[in-house]
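Question (not urgent): is this output format expected?
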Amino acid sequence: MTRDAESHSDEDRKKKQLAEARNEADTLVYSVEKSLKEYGDKLTEAEKKEIEEALERCRKVKETSTDSADIRASIDSLTKASYKISEHLYKASGAQTQPGAGPEAQAKAPEEEVVEAEFEEVDKKEK
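Got this back:
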């Protein structure tokens, strides 16, 4: 039995890699679809089309391919295409920050008034 298991170990490893690649592709497809629905209006039509094509390729390769390297390549392609969403969100968040709210403004912010006080610890057992 041990020899039989050892003889199939390479095949089992490949099946495991394939399953992991498919799971990773599923997760990425779901995530990108969700982001595209939420933030697709911030993208240009060309960017949106590029992401949608990468999504479709990734879905198709995940379902039809038996090679984990092919699936990983489609994952990489989709990841790179989805960076466009992140870029737009980053730019939008930078534009929404208020002028003067950066680290320089924080350094120049007026200091809060510090109040000094004395305190005395009272041990409840002494009373």
